[in-house]
Each structure stands twice: as C-alpha cells, then as structure tokens.
Design a protein that fits this description.
single chain, 244 residues, 2 domains, 57% helix, elongated
Length: 244
C-alpha cells in the first residue's frame, strides 16, 4: 500500500478500531491512519483531513454505517468507503450496494486480504468479498436469466406473429398457439401471466431455474416473440380463452 494514504476507521468498539489500526500501521508505516468511535467523530476527522478511504462498521448506536456512507457520498465525494462488518445478511448487503458502498469486507479476514481490498478500492475499483457474491448469487443468477430472456434476439425465430399481431390475436390463432406449445410451456406462460418470477416458477414446478429459462426461450422461438411483455399478453389471452 502506498505511503501517503489517509485512512479513517469508524467503529464504536474501540478495541476493534485500534486493533485494525495497529495491523494496518505495521503493514504500511507511512500510511496516516485515523480512528473515530462514532459517525459524529468521523465527520470531524473528515472535515479536518483529506481522507482517501474509510473502513466503516455498519451496526453502531445513534448513526450507523449507512448514515456515514450517505454523509460521505454527499459531502466528501472523493472519499471511498469500504464496509468492514461481521454481517453477511442479504438485506444488509443489498442496502450496502443501494447506498453505493465501494466495498464490503468482513472482520474475520486476514490482514493481507484486508490490505488487498483497500488497494483495490484506492485504485478506483470496487471490492466485494467472495462471501458477498455467494450471498447474492441466486438473485444475480435469476436477474441474468431474465435479462437474457428480455433481450433475446428475434433471429432464428419462426416469427409466427409480428409485433402488430400481438394486440389483436383471435381465438383461431390462440388455438394455433396451443398446438405449437407443449403443456409445460403453456403452464409456464400462465404463471408468467400472473407475474411469477423465474425462481417462483422453478420452485412451484420443482424444476431448475435453468429448465424454466430453457422453456421460456423455446416459447420465444416458437411464437416469434420479442419481449416479456408480448409473452404476458399472449398468456393472458390464452387464459381468458380457456376460462371462456
């Protein structure tokens, strides 16, 4: 780590803050390190020193780490912030992303891993520990599948319908759709019409998210659909036809 970094540690547990400071001081003697045991103390440090990066605990009394992050983003935009936490709760991780944290690190990592995360963020990159990725993977996986589905190319599709056709499908064409699709594909379309997510469909049908995605792609291909909105429109029309 370069010697001229100014780093601030915010943690209401003094032993934790001072211990982290001691570790980092040993590894980079020229690095100027400050500690604050509350967000209010941290603001005083930030106002009086040109802090490059903050290591911040999340759970603190009165003002917490998210309050600190909001203040830093608004008033000290050139200062980076890495959360240094014990929590791998999904809601907490999502909140860290939503608030624009530059990194998320855990208190039980080795000093080398901690220093690596600091170096990464100082260079202008983001650093989120692998455990954060593991916590979010299922949601990220579903999001990626949906993005791929929604942006599916119309190339190589049978183009049974044009975009203009979708809004004026007659009962004859709806019958043709049922002939083109398998029972499983129709079932999935009906669940999509009810705004079920890929994961919800997979859980209800006891199949994998990948299998649901494959069925969706097959539906797009068979019907020449361009997006999820069109699929939902046809699915709802099919449901109304069958109810009638």
């Amino acid at each position: 780590m370069k010697d001229n970094i100014k780093l601030l540690i915010i943690d209401d547990f003094q032993l934790s803050a001072l211990g982290t400071k001691a570790i980092l001081t040993d590894c980079s003697p020229g690095c100027e390190i400050f500690t604050a045991f509350s967000v209010d103390e941290a603001i005083d440090v930030l106002e009086n020193h040109d802090i490059d990066i903050v290591l911040c605990d999340i759970v603190m009394p009165e003002k917490d780490g998210f309050d600190a992050l909001r203040i830093i983003k608004n008033d000290f935009p050139n200062t980076k912030l890495i959360f240094l936490s014990i929590s791998d709760d999904k809601e907490t991780v999502y909140k860290a992303l939503a608030y624009g944290a530059d990194g998320y690190q855990f208190k039980d990592v080795t000093k080398d891993v901690l220093i690596d995360s600091i170096k990464t963020v100082i260079k202008g990159n983001k650093y989120f520990h692998q455990r954060v990725i593991n916590v979010l993977y299922d949601d990220l996986h579903e999001f990626a599948i949906l993005k791929l589905d929604d942006s599916s190319s119309s190339a190589n599709k049978l183009s049974y319908f044009t975009s203009q056709d979708i809004n004026s499908i007659g009962s004859k064409n709806l019958t043709k759709i049922e002939e083109l699709l398998t029972d499983r594909e129709i079932e999935i379309m009906e669940m999509i019409a009810n705004n079920s997510s890929t994961k919800e469909i997979a859980d209800k049908l006891k199949i994998s998210i990948f299998t649901v995605s494959t069925h969706r792609k097959n539906i797009y291909a068979k019907l020449g659909l361009e997006n999820l909105t069109q699929m939902r429109k046809l699915a709802r029309d099919l449901m109304m036809k069958n109810v009638g």
